[in-house]
């Protein structure tokens, strides 16, 4: 095992142990672990440009069903660290410490924004640049289509509110790529938790004198779940490594991040639903946690654009 693999394994194990204590709901707690500065340069208070580590943390947060607005606040911290000195001085210390929370949106009308109840501003990732709006009324329009009970969201129309440009098109493309990878990794974490819970249940559940997990047809479906999970993790890691080749992001990795997001989000909802189906009656009960995993990945599937949108972006970048 090479040093890179050892580092990833250590980060994964440490994050899982830390989040097992229930720390995923407190943004300040995540800030105390320096997890909000993983994409911020060291000379500006962060840990450097570490997209691979960030995707590992995102996966463990998804596995733990963490409710803190980590993805949005970390991407906001990254964008603000590239902005003017005045904006950095005003917002960056709070973002890195977890005392200030920013919401994240892809430009459009309307768009879904999570954790709007605690956000102080909205960072907007558009095709031509990065904008920041402190005038959006974040708590005025509930998102009736949202399924996630852990991360409340609202729908906002960004075209009606002015944004201050704080980054160019290159920054927008890199931050969109990072966000896609983080949301995809979060979804893989939710799938991993659902699959492991399912395997434990099927090992203990007896049918016709044998554990349900012993039946070949069930084993094949469990193998399909594991293969998909491993493929997703490999694609996300490859894109994250490529993105991390240059400080501030390798723009040539943007299409690869779109491909990884498209692959994961096109099937992860169906895969978690497969966990529900294989769990039998208990999978549909309100008390069992599976429905939370399904709700989380369903909302993730449209949070930063759909899998189809990412596939179109990848195809366009590849000259198709």
Describe the structure.
It is a single chain. The chain is of the alpha+beta class and about 325 residues long. It has a domain at about 170-315: Up-down Bundle (Butyryl-CoA Dehydrogenase, subunit A, domain 3). The chain has helices spanning about 5-20, 25-30, 50-65, 70-80, 85-95, 170-205, 215-245, 255-280, 290-300, 305-315; strands at about 100-105, 110-115, 120-125, 130-135, 155, 165, 205, 210. It has a four-stranded mixed β-sheet. A two-stranded antiparallel sheet has the order 2-5. The chain is globular and about 70 Å long. The two termini are about 35 Å apart.
Specify the CATH class of the domain at 170-317: Mainly Alpha
* Strand coverage percent: 5-15%
Largest sheet: 4 strands, mixed
SSE order in H/E notation?
A: HHHHHEEEEEEHEEHHHH
Q: Strand pairing plus helix content: what structural class?
A: alpha+beta
Tags for this model:
320 residues; alpha+beta; Butyryl-CoA Dehydrogenase, subunit A, domain 3; 4-stranded mixed beta sheet; two-stranded antiparallel sheet; 54% helix; 9% strand; globular
Summarize it.
The protein is an alpha+beta fold and 320 residues long.
Task: Record the SSE blueprint.
Layout: H1 3-19, H2 27-32, H3 51-63, H4 70-81, H5 85-97, E1 102-106, E2 111-114, E3 121-125, E4 130-133, E5 153-156, E6 164-167, H6 169-204, E7 206-207, E8 210-211, H7 216-243, H8 254-278, H9 290-300, H10 307-317
Parallel strand pairs: 1-3
Antiparallel strand pairs: 2-5, 3-4, 4-6, 7-8
């Amino acid at each position: 095992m090479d040093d890179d693999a050892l580092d990833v394994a250590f980060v994964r194990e440490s994050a899982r142990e830390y989040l097992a204590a229930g720390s995923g709901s407190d943004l300040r707690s995540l800030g105390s672990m320096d997890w909000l500065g993983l994409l911020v340069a060291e000379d500006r208070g962060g840990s450097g440009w570490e997209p691979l580590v960030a995707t590992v943390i995102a996966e463990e947060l998804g596995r733990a069903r963490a409710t803190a607005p980590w993805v949005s606040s970390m991407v906001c911290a990254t964008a603000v660290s590239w902005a003017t000195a005045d904006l950095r001085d005003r917002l960056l210390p709070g973002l890195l410490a977890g005392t200030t929370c920013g919401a994240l949106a892809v430009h459009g009308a309307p768009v879904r924004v999570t954790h709007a109840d605690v956000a102080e501003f909205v960072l907007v990732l558009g095709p031509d640049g990065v904008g920041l709006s402190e005038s959006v009324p974040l708590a005025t329009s509930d998102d009736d289509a949202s399924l996630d009970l852990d991360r409340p969201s609202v729908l906002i129309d960004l075209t009606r509110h002015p944004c201050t440009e704080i980054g160019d098109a290159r920054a927008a493309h890199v931050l969109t790529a990072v966000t896609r990878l983080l949301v995809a990794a979060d979804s893989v974490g939710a799938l991993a938790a659902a699959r492991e819970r399912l395997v434990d249940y099927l090992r203990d559940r007896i049918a016709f004198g044998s554990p349900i997990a012993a039946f070949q047809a069930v084993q094949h479906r469990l193998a399909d779940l594991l293969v998909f999970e491993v493929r997703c993790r490999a694609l996300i890691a490859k894109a994250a490594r490529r993105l991390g080749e240059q400080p501030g992001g390798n723009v040539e990795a943007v299409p690869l991040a779109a491909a990884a997001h498209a692959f994961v989000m096109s099937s992860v909802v169906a895969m978690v639903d497969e966990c529900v189906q294989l769990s039998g009656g208990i999978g549909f009960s309100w008390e069992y946690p599976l429905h939370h995993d399904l709700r989380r990945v369903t909302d993730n599937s449209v949070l930063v654009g759909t899998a189809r949108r990412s596939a179109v972006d990848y195809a366009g970048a590849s000259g198709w």
